[in-house]
Amino acid sequence: xxxxxxxxxxxxxxxxxxxxxxxxxxxxxxxxxxxxxxxxxxxxxxxxxxxxxxxxxxxxxxxxxxxxxxxxxxxxxxxxxxxxxxxxxxxxxxxxxxxxxxxxxxxxxxxxxxxxxxxxxxxxxxxxxxx
Length: 131
Fold this sequence. Notes:
Blueprint: H1 6-28, H2 36-44, H3 47-52, H4 68-93, H5 99-122
Helix pairs in contact: 1-5, 2-4, 2-5, 4-5
């Protein structure tokens, strides 16, 4: 996607707003604000990938695509995403939050994280041959 238009930005912002709405409603409808932690985990999930993405190897090594810091960033991101899905399930299993709040929290968190991934994939800068 070389040129993402204003329609893409509007669609992504709408999906992000719906995701945050679901997370906030999962807190407000049942009077327990612990599912709000899920939104925090999904917002923070892409940060390790963003921080460690530039720590790759040199352009001359062809035998291995990744490097230690890049793999560490992916591992931390995966851990945070799994935490975002597992936290509401654990809270619902221990009856701290309602099962409906768990479902709404997971759905809203998935929309938030999916929107962040779609935005970063859509507006990713293409690396030129001479960088």
